[in-house]
From TrEMBL, chains A, B:
The keyword Repeat does not apply. PANTHER family: MANNOSE-1-PHOSPHATE GUANYLYLTRANSFERASE. It comes from the Bacteria. This is Xanthan biosynthesis protein XanB. It is an enzyme of class 2 (transferase). The keyword Protein transport does not apply. InterPro entries: GMPP_N, Man1P_GuaTrfase/Man6P_Isoase, Man6P_isomerase-2_C, ManC/GMP-like_b-helix, Mannose-6P_isomerase_type2, NTP_transferase_dom, Nucleotide-diphossugar_trans, RmlC-like_jellyroll. Residues 4-285 form the Nucleotidyl transferase domain. Residues 292-347 form the MannoseP isomerase/GMP-like beta-helix domain. It comes from Rhodanobacter lindaniclasticus. Its EC number is 2.7.7.13. Belongs to the mannose-6-phosphate isomerase type 2 family.
């Protein structure tokens, strides 16, 4: 059985303000209609004999993962929740243990969730070349054929050929300086280390046990106490916190005698920055990539992304990145795009929410967006998915008015239960116990006007919750 | 009597997206708490013996002018409405006719509403130097002492001295090229033509009658049919449309034998572009002018203006103008700021509302802001001023929900009249005749949720209106 392992734990801070802690880049439709995570899943599903994936993600993103899988019609994935981040070594080890539950002979195709692959055919070919090697017990890494002297990636030096399309790994080399990278590019025999792998689950764990026995033991220990809850495999936080953080490269790949590389030229990008996304995107005649409602005059080599309901006009500018969102706007130079993480660091230091939360917040039941705010009021647009329900809740400091603008709501208010449809409204006095549910066939949209002296998200007492949050 | 004439008809397209047709730059607080218009009025009021002003503006801006004057405690201004724009010649002639109604000996201090003057003391001194000349029948213009070889202004060549602080005007010269401007600056004897004047109303009209008799006759004719309505002097549209458009410079100043110039060095700027505003503003250690919630890293010589409720982060950029508003964002280079009007032209051509209207729209009774919109709904935040009332109205295609979030509303709904206070709501079915009034002592704020198949501003039947709009 070929089981895709989708590593979805990244934070993508360099793609702020679109990518944020609660909605990192892999869950965004940065290139095309599907999110990067969904594209990765679809890419893996397209392989013959591919089983449903094991997804490893942080607990915070579990509903995003479930929802984005569901939108693809995938309901049988294993979603393994890392209670704390521990880098790729422990994440892959967890996935391997989970895969072995399904098939003791499982082969794993490990794919980071936030990579873009332009040429899926070449990628599929490379997987087919790698499969026989994995069957022979090789730990195969996919090496990206360089087309530029990149200094932002590690490289793999090819050793002896293993058949016509693969090589032993002679060495993993760290990110080079510019001159060295130019040498690698000119001389050949080097590939970029993409972080994509193919190996038998059993074999990987055996190597880990031998090369990083402490990590192996700690992960095995943590996995033993895993609990399955709703669709999720929950790893015990205390146990997982004991695991040392390390990459699979350091823990296994650089030490094993059985590392192989299959070179591939597949339009790969790790979308490590806005500049990288610009480079990976189709561009217009002025070499601009314009997303959304953008008017560009006499401007070149720019990446401009407008947000909903606001146009962007650029005039006489070159080589800029402009990314607008509901609550934060970024303007930088493409060649400074790597430093966007400095902004995120400053926002963290200042305890500003913009590094973490979007104005529109996704919840298991749907989403809310704070569309206006005043001294003693807040207005939210709330969308409830078909079949979903908010928790049964009450507030100590605010009353709420609900006006349904689309779909139909079932409203619980203290002892009453009643329906509200489009253009109907109700009032929830301070302290009333209430719940909102969408029993209809279309999404429910409503406008909520909150009125009160304190309007923070933490003024909520959850009495019952179908998502385990009460 | 010294009567200030505030010319408020400008459109300020180069300061888009903040300045728009329905709210041009003179009515914005671009530098300080007061708007440029208010600063101009205050500057004139500070002169000894200054009477209340005559304001000339377009009909569209009449309530803005009235409100901004009222905020300064000025209730006795004459507000003359130009039904169509005809440049400064006819506007000043109208103001002169209006001033003569108050005092046949009136002296006019003509000030464009959209200029910034940093050093009010020097400006006042210059007016005092000019007053005796005006009394002798001179038409005095204020010449700005150049501090740079500007190619964007006309210049005045000084002639013979008139006392120690003034000169005959030898010639008005057109905008020069760079080399000529450098010569003017180096050689001295030239001042920028600021568009500020001091003269007797009677004298100006006599000169106009002699030098531009057709304009004089047409303006006099139009003024004769003027009607005073509320606080406004309304000029008949058909009559005023007959007047030829021309500047006071061409019509009178360049032809009269009695033109004098009083040079002044008063930190003057016409704020003709974002670059000019940057130049006229105090800047930080990195030579940036940052307005609102801006995080600037490693950026220099920029003008950055954030809008409400959204932060702007800039990183590694120099010499940019970034201006954000609720529905449009501009990014350009400072040295291209003059070309912002190209964007406005494109928006006009595309019939996009962003060249004309802000998302927040001012009305005589207060304002509304469209905070959210969907397929069959729209959400507005409505503010009603103390003592103000919306028209008695109805809609054919929408129902409305009103939730009061601050203050108290008197609501008329068909036969009923009732009060709503904070955290109370009501529903106005499609077709109901309704009115909203603020009888309280604080502004009334409410959230309006509109529901219906057509939500355009033009679905309104006004049955009664205190502002003459029914």
């Amino acid at each position: 059985m070929l089981i895709p392992v989708i590593l979805s734990g990244g934070s993508g801070t360099r793609l702020w303000p679109l990518s944020r802690k609660n909605l990192p880049k892999q869950f965004l439709p940065l290139a095309g209609e599907l999110t990067l995570f969904q594209q990765t899943v679809v890419r893996a599903r397209a392989l013959p004999d591919s089983a449903s994936p094991v997804v490893v993600c942080s607990e915070e993103h579990r509903f995003l993962v479930a929802e984005q899988l569901q939108a693809l019609g995938i309901t049988d994935a294993s979603i393994v929740l890392e209670p704390v981040p521990r880098n790729t070594g422990p994440a892959i080890a967890l996935a391997a243990l989970q895969a072995l539950q399904r098939d003791p002979e499982a082969t794993l195709l490990v794919l980071p969730a936030d990579h873009l692959i332009g040429d899926a055919g070449n990628f599929t070919d490379a997987v087919h070349k790698a499969l026989p090697l994995a069957a022979e017990g090789w730990l195969v890494t996919f090496g990206i054929r360089p087309d530029a002297p990149e200094t932002g990636f590690g490289y793999i030096r090819r050793g002896d050929a293993l058949g016509s399309d693969a090589f032993r790994v002679e060495a993993f080399v760290e990110k080079p300086d510019r001159a060295t990278a130019e040498g690698y590019l000119a001389g050949g025999g080097y590939d970029w280390n993409s972080g994509m792998f193919l190996f038998q689950a059993r074999r990987l764990l055996d190597e880990l046990a031998q090369l990083a026995p402490a990590m192996h033991a700690a992960v095995a220990d943590a996995y033993q106490s895993a609990k399955t809850d709703l669709d999720f495999v929950r790893i015990d936080q205390d146990a997982f916190a004991q695991v040392e953080a390390d990459s699979i490269d350091y823990a296994v790949m650089e030490k094993t005698a059985r590392a192989a590389v299959v070179p591939v030229h597949c339009g790969w990008s790790d979308i490590g920055s806005w500049d990288a996304l610009w480079a990976a995107s189709e561009r217009d005649a002025a070499d601009n990539r314009l997303e959304g409602d953008v008017l560009a005059l006499d401007s070149h080599h720019c990446y401009v992304r407008a947000s909903d309901r606001r146009m962007v006009a650029v005039l006489g500018v070159d080589d800029l990145v402009i990314v607008d969102t509901a609550d934060a706007l970024l303007v930088t130079r493409r060649d400074r795009a790597q430093d966007v993480k400095q902004i995120v660091e400053q926002l963290k230091t200042g305890e500003r929410p913009e590094h973490r939360l979007h104005r529109k917040v996704y919840r298991p039941w749907g989403s809310y967006d704070s569309i206006d705010m005043g001294e003693r009021f807040q207005v939210k647009r709330i969308v409830v998915k078909v079949g979903a329900a908010l928790s049964l809740q009450k507030h100590h400091h605010r009353a709420e008015h609900w006006i349904v603008v689309s779909g139909t709501a079932e409203v619980t208010r203290d002892q009453e239960v009643f329906m509200l449809s489009e253009n109907e409204s109700t009032y929830l006095p301070l302290g009333s116990v209430h719940r909102l549910r969408n029993l209809g066939k279309v999404p429910l949209e409503l406008i909520e006007v909150q009125s009160g002296s304190y309007l923070g998200e933490d003024d909520i007492v959850r009495l019952e919750d179908v998502y385990g949050r009460a």
